[in-house]
């Protein structure tokens, strides 16, 4: 199956943002949805109009966010990569462009790699200088008690023409050592949150304040951390180190990485880290991004720890 | 003509370039309990070779090609003032490769470790071979390509030294940290030799590719572990 979706968001003097284009075809169907507090942001959900991605599928999503427009893209459910009837690889190409002053939040549900699948997601994000981004990517290695097929996720982030991040992740039978202690250590879920905020360019330090977070022994419960110093550095048993905030070189960006036994644990870690005070207070613009609403559970989980 | 012995000198863990101070993420994996025995080490080395090793091989080969061109242009320029027109282009390629590694290393701790090892290798290279004194602050794989070029080695050999180095360092650290059987540990290295050769051949074949198309395979737990490790007050290895 070949399918393409195209979404173009532009600034609107009355509503803040409007959709200049929203096209799709099964299984990529964008639907406008309405959050309670929109802040001039347009939100839409991708609705899966067919099973998949199945082996042989070639899916493309193109997103454009114009100057000062705000767009949030979510999906209604996890997508499940399955082997195709005639074999072959399934491919999903996501291309996103955000203009200066624009903001894109890409917060879909996880991708699950089923046994025998052969899937490749290629993401290419081009931000103009002054654009803001929140980009979540989550992968689950197999359904319940199922070995994962081959999944490869390739991500390129450019900011002002410079490549800030080139990050690929491969799991499955073809990826040597992927479940070993260097890569995932048997974790069945892995996720990342890519955050770009031009306000960090104005900060005195090139790299935002570093923060390492180590989960407590019963992490995944979603409860707020109780211990924490003013620097945001946590001390806990090292055997539970499963997530970190990684400020990127050469631009106002950071990657939050997390692994976990299941997607819920990974989401909890990403959510919790994304609302940490890992940036200096003076970069108030970052705090204005409603990052706490990454997922509905986040706001309650982190409310006690916000200030 | 440079022979195999030069490659052995460059790839030798006893080369005074500070490699012994780094465990390639192994210390963090051991202390966190992720790696306890030979089977764990086998998985660790395979994962590291497929990610960091693949990137190191690709960037060492690409940097070797660029550094050889710069050296050839410099030699031409000495003989004939008109030559060396694409010298600047290849110096720029070395800068771009360095930025390419920044983009492939989200962990600040790993970026620091790579630059520390790159600087130490270039210092050794200047003393041993005729490495360009202007090349000082480079990521380790780029430094390896530059030093290999100065030693007269081809890109594939720079790459094989790079791939092998990403597993031999942690392997010897595992013997020291866990007291594993050295014969067993070296059997693992011998098993991975073929994969090192394969990655090096791939790296040499694609040494001229645009930087964004070079390998970028990541290992989330090496990155997370490096950040955790960098915060310890007492550790045996620098990374």
From TrEMBL, chain A:
It comes from the Bacteria. Keywords: Chaperone, Cytoplasm, Nickel insertion. Residues 217-237 are annotated as: Disordered. HAMAP family: UreD. Required for maturation of urease via the functional incorporation of the urease nickel metallocenter. UreD, UreF and UreG form a complex that acts as a GTP-hydrolysis-dependent molecular chaperone, activating the urease apoprotein by helping to assemble the nickel containing metallocenter of UreC. The UreE protein probably delivers the nickel. This is Urease accessory protein UreD. It comes from Plantactinospora alkalitolerans. The lineage of its organism: Bacteria, Bacillati, Actinomycetota, Actinomycetes, Micromonosporales.
From TrEMBL, chain B:
It comes from the Bacteria. The keyword Membrane does not apply. It is found in: Cytoplasm. Keywords: Chaperone, Cytoplasm, Nickel insertion. UreD, UreF and UreG form a complex that acts as a GTP-hydrolysis-dependent molecular chaperone, activating the urease apoprotein by helping to assemble the nickel containing metallocenter of UreC. The UreE protein probably delivers the nickel. Required for maturation of urease via the functional incorporation of the urease nickel metallocenter. Belongs to the UreF family. This is Urease accessory protein UreF. The gene is ureF.
């Amino acid at each position: 199956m070949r399918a393409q979706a195209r979404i173009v968001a532009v600034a609107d003097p009355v509503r803040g943002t409007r959709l200049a284009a929203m096209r799709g075809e099964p299984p990529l169907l964008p639907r406008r949805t309405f959050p309670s507090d929109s802040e001039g942001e347009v939100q839409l959900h991708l609705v899966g109009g067919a099973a998949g991605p199945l082996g042989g599928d070639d899916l493309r999503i193109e997103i454009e966010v114009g100057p000062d427009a705000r767009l949030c893209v979510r999906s209604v459910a996890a997508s499940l990569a399955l082997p195709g009837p005639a074999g072959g690889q399934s491919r999903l190409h996501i291309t996103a462009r955000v203009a200066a002053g624009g903001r894109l939040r890409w917060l879909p549900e996880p991708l699950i790699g089923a046994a025998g699948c052969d899937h490749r997601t290629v993401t290419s994000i081009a931000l103009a200088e002054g654009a803001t981004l929140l980009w979540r990517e989550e992968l689950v290695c197999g359904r319940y008690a199922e070995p994962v097929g081959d999944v490869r996720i390739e991500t390129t982030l450019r900011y002002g023409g410079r490549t800030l991040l080139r990050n690929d992740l491969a799991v499955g039978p073809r990826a040597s050592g992927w479940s070993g202690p260097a890569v995932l250590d048997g974790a069945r879920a892995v996720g990342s949150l890519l955050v770009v905020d031009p306000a960090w360019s104005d900060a005195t330090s090139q790299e935002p304040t570093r923060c390492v977070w180590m989960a407590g022994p019963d992490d995944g419960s979603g409860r707020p951390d109780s211990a924490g110093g003013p620097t945001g550095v946590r001390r806990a048993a090292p055997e539970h180190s499963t997530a970190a905030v990684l400020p990127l070189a050469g631009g106002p960006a950071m990657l939050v990485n997390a692994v976990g036994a299941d997607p819920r644990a990974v989401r909890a870690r990403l959510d919790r880290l994304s609302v940490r005070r890992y940036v200096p207070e003076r970069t108030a613009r970052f705090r204005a991004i409603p990052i706490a609403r990454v997922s509905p559970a986040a706001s309650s989980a982190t409310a006690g720890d916000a200030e | 003509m440079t022979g195999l012995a030069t490659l052995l000198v460059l790839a030798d863990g006893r080369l005074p370039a500070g490699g012994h101070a780094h465990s390639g993420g192994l210390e963090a994996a051991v202390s966190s309990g992720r790696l306890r025995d030979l089977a764990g080490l086998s998985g660790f080395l395979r994962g590291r070779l497929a990610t960091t090793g693949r990137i190191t091989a690709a960037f060492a080969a690409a940097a070797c090609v660029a550094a050889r061109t710069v050296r050839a242009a410099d030699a031409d320029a000495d003989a004939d003032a008109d030559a060396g027109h694409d010298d600047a282009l290849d110096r720029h390629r070395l800068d771009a490769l360095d930025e390419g590694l920044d983009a492939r290393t989200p962990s600040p701790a790993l970026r620091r470790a790579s630059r520390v090892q790159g600087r130490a290798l270039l210092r050794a290279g200047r003393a041993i071979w005729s490495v360009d004194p202007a090349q000082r602050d480079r990521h380790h794989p780029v430094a390896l390509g530059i030093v290999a070029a100065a030693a007269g080695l081809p890109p594939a050999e720079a790459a094989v030294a790079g791939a092998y180095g990403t597993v031999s360092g942690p392997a010897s650290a595992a013997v020291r940290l866990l007291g594993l059987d050295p014969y067993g540990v070296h059997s693992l290295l011998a098993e991975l030799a073929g994969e090192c050769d394969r990655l090096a051949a791939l790296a040499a074949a694609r040494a001229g590719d645009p930087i964004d198309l070079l390998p970028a395979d990541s290992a989330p737990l090496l990155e997370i572990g490096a950040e955790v490790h960098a915060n310890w007050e007492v550790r045996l290895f620098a990374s």
